[in-house]
């Protein structure tokens, strides 16, 4: 087990689970993934701008409170899915907070430490890709399960939030 796999899974798995429950319909899956990608991109820029000024602890501390507050708001969006733009805004902010958490965890473990690409860097990148694949598979499984059995899906959602 690689530390890169664990860091990515710890950070992105809660986002993929919440995304499976919050995404309104099957036709909005591509837009949801696009919003999550943009949130990660903005999180990347925000983290490395904060890292230049050595303020990463304060940034992570503040956005952890934002993440916890949005978890409570996501409970409302589980039932109220008529306004898709609010779901997309919520997913974008959640992915921004998740990206900040991931970059904070992995700031001391750079993947490419040398100028040459070696086999250890490629295997570490492979572990990150494997963790991404696991998160995507869990997303589609929960999305399928939500459409199949609504009551069990709600119980699982409550368990994950608590």
Secondary-structure map:
Elements: H1 3-22, H2 29-52, H3 56-79, H4 84-105, H5 119-148, H6 150-161
Helix pairs in contact: 1-4, 1-5, 2-4, 3-4, 5-6
Overview of the structural elements:
This protein is mostly helical and 162 residues long. It has one domain (3-161). 81% of the residues lie in helices and 0% in strands. It is built from 6 helices and no strands. The protein has helices at 3-22, 29-52, 56-79, 84-105, 119-148, 150-161. The radius of gyration is 17 Å and the shape is globular. The two termini are 28 Å apart. The model has no long low-confidence stretch (mean pLDDT 78).
Number of structural domains: 1
Low-confidence stretches: none
Helix content: over 70%
Q: Which class of secondary structure composition applies to the elements?
A: mainly alpha
* Run of helices and strands: HHHHHH
Main sheet makeup: none
**Rg to the nearest angstrom?**
17 Å
Shape: globular
Number of helices, counting only DSSP H or I runs of 4 residues or more: 6
Provide the residue-averaged pLDDT.
Answer: 78
Quantity of strands, as a count: 0
Residues in β-strands, percent: under 5%
Q: What features would you highlight for this structure?
A:
mainly alpha; single chain; 162 residues; globular
Quick summary:
Helices cover 81% and strands 0% of the residues. By secondary structure, it is mainly α.
